[in-house]
Design a protein that fits this description.
Helix content: 25-40%
Strand order of the largest sheet: 1-2-3-4-5
Amino acid sequence: MHVRPATSVDLDGLVASTAALFAEDGAARDSLRNADWPAAHGLEWCTDLLADPQALVLVAVSGDEVAGHLVGSFSEPSDMWTGSRAELVSMYVRGELRGQGVGGQLVDAFVEWAKSRGAAQLHVTAYATNEAALRLYASRGFAARSITLAAEL
């Protein structure tokens, strides 16, 4: 297993990985998520990310198969934000490979990328019920700064 920047050759596997994350995490934990979004928009989203100079797209590869991914974005300082920031937007590792350090490798590569770009702060959002993700992020120095509360109507 190794982690590397994604290329256009990885698009099918990258789209499948993002769709798996969506099905397992977002659509399963949020009743307003459209479970069909990855099928309708995943290829376009991933293609656009690969062309975006402010995005990091990594794949975890086993043989020639994408077994996980990470998407990060970088934001320069602005009138609102006094320092540059990097956000871990999306990350997934196939279930059978979890607990083997793959997620840690992806997060570590994201942190190094953000540092190399001069980020002053890192951000990630995770569902409160995704305890494994929260433990992984905490092990890499992330700490809760805000809480989003939701109520179904």
